[in-house]
Amino acid sequence: MKWLAGAPLEPQGFEAMKEQLMTRFSSLAFALALSGFAAPALAQEFKAGDVTIDKAWARATPKGAEVGAAYFVIHNNGATPERLTGGSADFAAVEIHEMKTEGGVMKMGELKNGLNIPAHATIRLAPGGYHVMFTHLTKPLAKGEKVKATLTFDPAGPVEVEFPVEEVGASGPTPMKGGAMGGMKM
Ligand SMILES: [Cu+2]
Fold it and tell me: What mean pLDDT do residues 10-19 have?
């Protein structure tokens, strides 16, 4: 019976505790929300020697597509030029491509000698410009998955990069009507 005397205090104590817990939960939720917002800024970085790669992504491909494209930003933090010479992946062949407008016509072609990155320079691969082209795809690239490919730099060497796959319409390459890549279904 003695403990019953203290009973009326219990709910208050509980309420206070609950309130404190709720406060903790909401600050936790707030912290989680903050970290969610911060995520893009903390996008993954990949390194080989003096070369850093960030903001990597690949474009989802429609069913039956034979090619896909990937984009990223290359930073050459060194005092000597670097060259992206090619790469490899287990789901496709990897080519370095350039897209440009010639006489009002969009043209795309392989950079057979690779892509030069001058000392201390940053080169952005983006839709409508330089890109990595996955050819001979053995599977479609599905939105939400991550695919891995190895990029090779000279002299920095190989680096494995993870590409989150974004939706087909995600500011992807411009459709190439009358372009040089008539055989490519983009
Ligand atoms: Cu291409």
Answer: 56
